[in-house]
Amino acid sequence: MTPKTVAVAGATGLVGREMMRVLEERNFPVKSIKLLASARSKGTKLKFKGEDLPVEELTETSFKGVEIALFSAGGSTSKKFSPCAAKDGCVVVDNSSAWRMDDTVPLVVPEVNAADIKWHKGIIANPNCSTIQMVVVLKPLHDAAKLERVIVSTYQAVSGAGIKALDELLEQTKAVIEGRKPEAILFPHQIAFNCIPQIPQSDAFADNGYTSEEMKMVNETKKIMGDQSIRVCATTVRVPVYTGHSESVNIETEKKLTPDEARAILANAPGVIVKDDPSRQVYPLASEAAGHGDTFVGRIREDLSHPHGLAMWIVSDNLLKGAALNAVQIAERL
Ligand code: A2P
After folding, report:
1. How far apart are CA 153 and CA 72, in angstroms?
2. Exposure string (b/e) for 300-312, b if CB count within 10 Å is 16 or more?
3. Domain, as residue range, for 167
4. How many whole angstroms from 72 Cα to the centroid of ligand 1?
5. Ligand 1 center to residue 58 CA distance, Å?
6. pLDDT digits (tens, 9 = 90+) for 113-152
7. Relative to the CA of 143, which of 89, 153, 182, 188 has its CA 20 to 30 Å away?
8. Closest ligand 1 atom, residue 37 Cα
9. Where are the beta strands (DSSP E) in 84-219?
10. Which residues are catalytic?
11. Pocket flag, ligand 1, residue 77 (CB < 6 Å)
């Protein structure tokens, strides 16, 4: 690949920093890199390949001469600036939810639907973190036995809500240990030593009783898998973990799959590592998945409540495969 001129929009954020680290680590052929964030961060220095580079303010003219832009600066910023970038001939890989359900924008997990990259018109959407790790595991099972229904409950890390959320978890944890009353600012309730079944924390519940994160898992799964018939029910929960989303997933398939058959299929699946030896207490853990690009699956067993059902536990680093790594993998395919 010839070296590319790259921009990272939202470079000062948790995911933006991971994007830079992943570009570096995977030796992405970068000719030059532009680091963009809000006016607040103008002049801040960030390291890339050992060099201190200044952060520039993201504006409508930031993308002249840029070939690939990785965006992780929130939905409204993406809505405003991605079209400007595309107009200037740049291809945007956007980590926000702004474009995901737009019919003219491919929603891509390279292990699942890399072919969809071809029909982009300047913007490619990176799916929701919880959806990415789930479909990486479910696609090979879908190909083998056709998924009919998925029931998922998530245990999502606080880093998915950004830097300020991590600070709040740390501060609340200290407060509880020191016997002070923990203060909830970003989260609607105490997150330290607690679980909150509302993601994102700032959104109102929809009329159907679901959160937008839950509906993302429903709708994005169908779009990425290219199958509107898959029925999905999601409950998304924030837990006091720094990094690594965990998911309890139950599936019903048209053709029966035994746990052994599922393990054999997943052992050969790209981006998936089977970690499943309950006799030795081996199963995926957020603490072990953090920092790794793969998606881990274990506790694969029959769902005793359904003749064609399987239950499993899926874990991945939400900032890597759930965000930065998936975006860079899309850029590599480009
Ligand atoms: P800044 O640091 O200047 O606020 P996180 O989700 O970890 O909080 O990161 C969000 C990222 O999006 C940050 O890099 C932030 O920059 C950037 N960002 C937020 N709002 C804007 C905006 N209006 N224009 C450009 N960048 C923005």
Report:
1. 25
2. bebeeebebbbbb
3. 131-317
4. 8
5. 10
6. 999 999 999 999 999 999 999 999 999 999 999 999 999 9
7. 153
8. 26
9. 91-94, 123-125, 147-155
10. 129, 245
11. yes
- Kindly state the average pLDDT of the residues 240-248: 98
Copy the structure tokens of residue 232. 């999905």
* pTM of the full structure: 0.97
- Mark whether 215 and 309 lie in a shared domain: yes
CATH code of the domain in which 30 resides? 3.40.50.720
Check pocket membership of 58 for ligand 1, CB cut-off 6 A: yes
Q: How far is the CA of 69 from the centre of ligand 1 (A)?
A: 15
pLDDT number for residue 319: 97
Domain check: are 119 and 167 in the same one? Answer: no
Q: Which of 12, 35, 46, 59 gets mutated to test ligand 1 (max ligand atoms within 8 A of its CB)?
A: 12
Q: What is the pLDDT of residue 156?
A: 98
**pLDDT band at 237; cut points 50, 70, 90:** very high
Instruction: State residue 72's pLDDT score.
Output: 97
CATH assignment at residue 167 = 3.30.360.10
Q: Which two tokens stand for residue 143?
A: 């190909």
Digit-coded pLDDT (tens) for 170-193: 999 999 999 999 999 999 999 999
The rounded distance, in Å, linking the Cα atoms of 115 and 294 is 21
Give yes or no for residue 147 CB within 6 A of ligand 1. Answer: no
80-90: pLDDT as tens digits:
999 999 999 99
User: How high does pLDDT run on average in the chain?
Assistant: 97
Ligand 1 pocket test: pick from 17, 21, 34, 38 the residue with the most ligand atoms within 8 Å of its Cβ. Answer: 38
Would you say 307 and 94 are in contact if contact means Cβ atoms under 8 Å apart? no
Within 10 angstroms of residue 167's Cβ, the number of other Cβ atoms is 13
For residues 128 and 107, what is the distance between their CA atoms, to the nearest angstrom?
10
What is the Cα–Cα distance from 290 to 293, expressed in whole angstroms?
8
Question: Do residues 89 and 38 both lie within one domain?
Answer: yes
pLDDT value at residue 1: 77
